[in-house]
Amino acid sequence: MSRAVIDIWSSYRTEADIAWIMPDGCQDVILSLPDNGAPSITISTLHHTATAVHIPAQQHMIGLRLSPGFNVSSLDLMQLYRYRYDTKELAANIEQSATPITSQLKEALSCLHQHISVQTTADTLGVSCRTLQRLLKTNTGQSPLFWARLARVRRAAQMLLAQNNASETAYLCHYADQAHMSREIKHWFGVTPQQLLSRPDIIHQLQAPGY
Length: 211
Known about the structure:
Blueprint: E1 5-13, E2 17-21, E3 28-34, E4 40-43, E5 51-55, E6 59-66, H1 77-81, H2 87-97, H3 103-113, H4 118-125, H5 129-140, H6 144-163, H7 166-172, H8 178-189, H9 193-196, H10 200-207
Helix pairs in contact: 3-4, 3-6, 6-7, 6-8
């Protein structure tokens, strides 16, 4: 998709519900359009673990998922609110107002996504580990370890969905053992590997664009 907006989703609930939101390394611009009431626009947080979110009844929600590392401070919600009924124009405005991700930040996130160690990532960028830490903390609010762990656990979960072989997945994703992988999946997604396979809501989120 585009450079800043990597996915657009929508949902509508006739009855109030609880939705579990999984960490994906992205923040979303979310439009809430209730059948009765004023529309609103918000920016989601960067989730560290599975988070329960209350969804009101009779409310249409549209989300524009921002690319990992996107600088949300560049967005003017009052400006974006003008396009609350035109998703195409809203996405275009986000693209136009977005602060470009620096090549250094992009490379750092790419390296960590490929399971390259923090030290090797720093070496690749030609900086110290402390400088890498500062780069990511300043631009994303998160440490290199956060991004490395998230990329690995999402990859492991996606592999489990594809082949359902826990021991092989743990090995291929460089976990110390199967128990280590299970603890990480439980920490990030709130379920065991076996429970993951029977949760359509989590599976859908893991298959959507993210980090």
